[in-house]
Amino acid sequence: MTQPLPLLERAAAVIPNGMYGHQNVVLLPEGMPQFFDRAEGATLWDDQGRSYLDYMCGYGPNLFGYGHKEIDDAYVARMRAGDTMTGPAPVMVELAEAMTAQVSHADWAMFCKNGTDATTMAMMIARRHTGRKTIVLAAGAYHGAAPWCTPLKGGTTPEDRANQIHYIYNDAESLEEAVRKAGSDLAAIFASPIKHDTFVDQELPDPEYARRARELCDEHGALLIVDDVRAGFRIARDCSWASVGVQPDLSSWGKAIANGHPISALLGADKARMAAATIYVTGSYWFSAAPMAAAITTLRLIRETDYLERTIALGDRLRAGLDAVATRHGFGLRQTGPSQLPLIMFHEDEGFGTGYAFCSGLLQRGVYFHPWHNMFISNAMTEADIDLTLQAADDTLRDVRAGPKPGPVEKLQILAQLAAE
Ligand SMILES: *Cc1c(COP(=O)(O)O)cnc(C)c1O
Questions:
Q1: Could you say which residues form the signal peptide (predicted)?
Q2: Most informative mutation of 255, 286, 373 for ligand 1 (most atoms within 8 A of CB)
Q3: Is 416 helix (H, G, I), strand (E, B) or coil?
Q4: Rounded to the nearest whole angstrom, what is the distance from the C-alpha of residue 313 to the centroid of ligand 1?
């Protein structure tokens, strides 16, 4: 009897590359599972039945835990009553009311499916509002995977990225320089709420830079856009830049707003309402009611629970514990960004050799970490989960020799090649 082919081989036959985008594990450390069967709370099970404490949270959507009962009950009830119909359900208005009540700069809301839909809509509304073309963005910041913003250039044209000028995140001078270059054509400044680029340390926003972005937009009649797709509701119960006292004109949301159910949003101030009302944007599934019901319940939990304080406290516990473990074994860690969005890299590890070995060791011990993308703390995690992680890190670093290690050169070369195209 012939054995059935492993899933990876079957995937390679019928899915280009076996997998695409950020969920292709080819570039990740040895042993990263490609397929998962089940998820509950903070735990994932791969297709082989192995379980992992999951620090990636689906790359962001899992905020209150996988399979959260109240959220999923709201989803299922709404789905049974009518989900994707010829028009939206009343929950659409309820959700728009809830989002605009929650986010202080927002007077209106539009819903879509992916973060990219929301950032693309933000760009269109800014251009419509100003009648201008140029958008100013931080170099290296991720705003989605449409031709105008996808990080690897394959299949896109220079024209797709025309009318863009880059600045350095947190550098008010470089922002001013970019705005000067845009001249009288500035439509918008895009800002990530924090610097959460891949491969490099995270940075919290310098309040002075954030305020300068606001002033420059006001001086030039341009719109300030905060892309809160990833960090939204993980840093504040408001737009993330409320934490530095800066209100954008538009903010894009996605990932955690319905705890894993597919919906994203663009929120805006009255100033941009006319422009938003006069662009044509839509999608077959943008009006599906069940994810909206899930988002309403998620928002209620955001208002009524201490999830934010809890995820910060758990992140702090992880950060302090990992620093102690690393020091004990002679490693230096760079743990940057908010502790509830941990990015953990090793000192003197440009080739990521130590980072990859660390992640592989953790994986064998049932902990899923990422070597160069920020991770996420889920409210379903417990102190015991953090302590188990610290034990796994201790056991792993005992085996990983301190000092420079050869990195996954081939894997990183593939990425560099793609980027250079
Ligand atoms: C994920 C992400 C996007 C794109 O969202 P998708 O749902 O993947 O289209 C945009 N901006 C940021 C900051 C993100 O993290």
A1: none
A2: 255
A3: helix
A4: 25
pLDDT tens digits, one per residue of 330-358: 999 999 999 999 999 999 998 999 999 99
Distance of CA 394 from the midpoint of ligand 1 (Å): 33
The alpha-carbon radius of gyration of the chain (Å, integer) is 22
Length, in residues, of the chain? 421
> Percent of the chain scored above 90 by pLDDT?
92
In the predicted structure, residue 1 carries a pLDDT above the cut 70: no
- Closest Cα to atom 6 of ligand 1: 115
**Which whole-number Å values give the CA distances from 195 to 96, 108, 119, 291, 389, in the listed order?**
28, 26, 16, 28, 26
- Site residues for ligand 1, CB cut-off 6 Å: 114-116, 119, 142-144, 192, 227, 229-230, 254, 264
Q: For 204, which DSSP code?
A: P
In this structure, are strands 164-167 and 134-138 parallel, antiparallel, or unpaired? parallel
Report how far ligand 1's centroid is from the alpha carbon of 225 (Å): 14
Instruction: Name the nearest CA neighbour of 279 among 292, 266, 263, 291.
Output: 266
Q: How far is the CA of 253 from the centre of ligand 1 (A)?
A: 8
Atom of ligand 1 nearest to the CA of 254: 7
Domains (ranges, CATH) in the chain? 6-66+306-420 (3.90.1150.10), 69-304 (3.40.640.10)
Atom of ligand 1 nearest to the CA of 149: 10
Task: Note if the pTM is more than 0.85.
Answer: yes
- Distance (angstroms) between ligand 1 centre and the Cα of 206 equals 22
Poorest-pLDDT segment among 102-116, 217-231, 287-301, 399-413: 399-413
Say what the pLDDT of residue 155 is: 95
Shortest-distance atom of ligand 1 to CA 115: 5
Distance 68 CA to ligand 1 centre (A): 22
- The pLDDT of residue 403 is 73
| CB contact at 8 A, 32 and 345 | no
Distance from the Cα of residue 209 to its chain's centroid: 22
For 91-130, write each residue's pLDDT tens digit: 999 999 999 999 999 999 999 999 999 999 999 999 999 9
| Residue whose CA lies nearest to ligand 1 atom number 15 | 230
Residue 55 alpha carbon to ligand 1 centre in Å: 18
Q: Is the distance from CB of 3 to CB of 10 less than 8 angstroms? A: no
Contact 266, 110 (CB under 8 A): yes
